[in-house]
């Protein structure tokens, strides 16, 4: 079957070259007679996989030597709990920019004895424009932000400099798609299912001095325990780590994160230009806050949005339906999404607009 253009927000599209390598290796990895899914996580074959995955990620993100890279499970949602359990002592600060940051706040509030302050929020403008982050002083143990909001379509591409505490970032939807200085953060976490590979893996990048600050944490929720055991305190998501290694190799072959960001900007600009030049479509997001990877748009008429999605699917444009809290359509243009797919979508948008009379 011919592949479709998959605009899913996650699990998301993966590059065909990577999928072909996975297909080739599926029955016997490197002549072992075993699939990667069958390899012991204590085997030399898998140890090489996880070592290579970490080395490649360190190279791609220029991760300093005083940061640990962890390959964990539980999704980014488990990090909503692990972060405050490990780093929160008395008082923490959060920026509310949408659905995922709201969930992170709610989980932090469940940690006994921890005060959670929402120091900035875009709730009043329905999360369509990022708030200004005020000075964050050392009364807080950390500041938590969501760099990219998959549902609302907003992004922080630049991190404020007036923050005097460790910055914790949920980078699930734009890790490796935009360039960030890892040293600006105390901890970065990201679910894999958007730019890193299949679901089931969560990457955590943590500054060493932030680990081991609290005693008697459950072992599975303790960053230091996970780091001391090389991300193998229990059986790790071996297949997802293998796929992540292949994805990291693919990004490197394309020229690294800086080159990927150029490509992503080209894709996003093409779609935003089509929206802005249209009499039918509009973007709900303020121009200065617009994401490069998750782009919501709508016609303003629910029945037209539904018709657009039906006709789009008939032409192989899948998973364009917007999140129920936003409505309309949403195109997720992660690293693996091809430029030709954006060009094809723009052509279809123009065709649809012409057919409905531009109203």
UniProtKB/TrEMBL annotation:
Catalytic activity reported: 4-(phosphooxy)-L-threonine + 2-oxoglutarate = (R)-3-hydroxy-2-oxo-4-phosphooxybutanoate + L-glutamate; O-phospho-L-serine + 2-oxoglutarate = 3-phosphooxypyruvate + L-glutamate
Protein name: Phosphoserine aminotransferase
Binding sites annotated in the UniProt record for pyridoxal 5'-phosphate: 76-77, 100, 150, 170, 193, 234-235
Keyword Cytoplasm: yes
Enzyme's top EC category: transferase
SUPFAM superfamilies: PLP-dependent transferases (SSF53383)
Gene Ontology terms for molecular function: O-phospho-L-serine:2-oxoglutarate aminotransferase activity
Cofactor(s) needed by this chain: pyridoxal 5'-phosphate
Residue numbers carrying N6-(pyridoxal phosphate)lysine: 194
């Amino acid at each position: 079957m011919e592949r479709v253009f998959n605009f899913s927000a996650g699990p998301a599209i993966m590059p065909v070259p990577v999928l072909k390598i996975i297909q080739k290796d599926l029955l016997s990895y490197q002549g072992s007679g075993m699939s990667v899914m069958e390899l012991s996580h204590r085997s030399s074959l898998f140890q090489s996989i996880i070592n290579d995955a970490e080395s490649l990620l360190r190279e791609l993100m220029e991760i300093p030597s005083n940061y640990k890279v962890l390959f964990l499970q539980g999704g980014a949602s488990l990090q909503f709990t692990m972060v405050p359990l490990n780093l929160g002592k008395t008082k923490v600060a959060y920026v509310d920019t949408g659905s995922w940051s709201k969930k992170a706040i709610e989980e932090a509030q469940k940690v006994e004895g921890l005060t959670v302050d929402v120091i900035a929020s875009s709730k009043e403008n329905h999360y369509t424009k990022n708030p200004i982050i005020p000075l964050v002083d050392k009364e807080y143990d950390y500041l938590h932000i969501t760099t990219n909001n998959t549902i609302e379509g907003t992004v922080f591409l630049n991190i404020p400099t007036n923050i005097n505490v460790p910055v914790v970032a949920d980078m699930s939807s734009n890790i490796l798609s935009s360039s960030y200085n890892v040293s600006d953060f105390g901890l970065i976490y990201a679910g894999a299912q958007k730019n890193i590979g299949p679901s089931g893996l969560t990457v955590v990048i943590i500054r060493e001095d932030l680990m081991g600050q609290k005693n008697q944490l459950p072992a599975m929720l303790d960053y230091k325990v996970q780091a001391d055991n090389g991300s193998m305190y229990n059986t790790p998501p071996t297949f997802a780590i293998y796929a992540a290694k292949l994805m990291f190799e693919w990004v490197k072959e394309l020229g690294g994160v800086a080159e990927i960001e150029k490509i992503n900007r080209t894709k996003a600009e093409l779609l935003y230009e089509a929206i802005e030049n249209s009499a039918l479509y509009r973007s709900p997001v303020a121009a200065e806050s617009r994401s490069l990877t998750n782009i919501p748009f709508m016609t303003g008429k629910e029945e037209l949005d539904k018709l657009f999605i039906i006709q789009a699917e008939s032409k192989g444009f899948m998973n364009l339906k917007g999140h129920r809290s936003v409505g309309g359509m949403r195109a997720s243009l992660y690293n693996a999404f091809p430029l030709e797919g954006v060009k094809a979508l723009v052509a279809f948008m123009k065709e649809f607009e012409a057919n409905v009379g531009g109203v």
